[in-house]
Amino acid sequence: MPPTILRKNGYRFFFFSREDPRMHVHVMFNKGEAKFWLQPQIELAMNYGFPIKEIKEIEDLIEEPYDEFVNTWHKHFTS
After folding, report:
1. What values do phi and psi take at 42, rounded to 5?
2. Please, how many CA atoms are within 13 Å of residue 23, restricted to the half-sphere of its CB?
3. 57: Cβ–Cβ under 8 A, 6 or more apart, which residues?
4. What's the confidence (pLDDT) of residue 74?
5. Domain count, the chain
6. What is the distance between the alpha carbons of residues 40 and 9, in angstroms, rounded to a whole number?
7. Distance CA 54, CA 60 (A)
8. Which of the pair, 28 or 19, is modelled with greater confidence?
9. CB 61 within 8 Å of CB 8
10. CB 33 within 8 Å of CB 12
């Protein structure tokens, strides 16, 4: 199972090992899954089942611990 970085408001944020070299995070909830690029800025890469309004809410959840996502990415993929 991919490592979970954060659980917040029912969402699970995680990375897949060696899936894509560009920094990103996946988010899953019971009704959908999405992938967001983290650099050069937070941007939706893929969306399976989340309404647009909810995508914005998820982006806001990524912004709060953004540095944690970036630091965890570097630790995970350089070890």
Report:
1. -70, 125
2. 18
3. none
4. 87
5. 1
6. 26
7. 10
8. 28
9. yes
10. no
User: What are the respective helix, strand and coil percentages of the chain, to the nearest 5?
Assistant: 30, 35, 35
Question: 10: which 2 tokens?
Answer: 């029912």
- What CA–CA distance (Å, rounded) separates 34 from 79? 26
- Specify the pLDDT at position 1: 62
The structure's pTM equals: 0.90
Q: Whole-angstrom Cα distance, residue 71 to residue 32?
A: 26
Cα–Cα distances in angstroms (integers) from residue 45 to residues 14, 30, 48, 53, in the given order:
15, 19, 10, 16
**% of the chain residues with pLDDT over 70:** 95
The per-residue pLDDT for range 29-63, each reduced to its tens digit, is 988 999 999 999 999 999 999 999 999 999 999 99
Residue 70: which domain range? 4-78
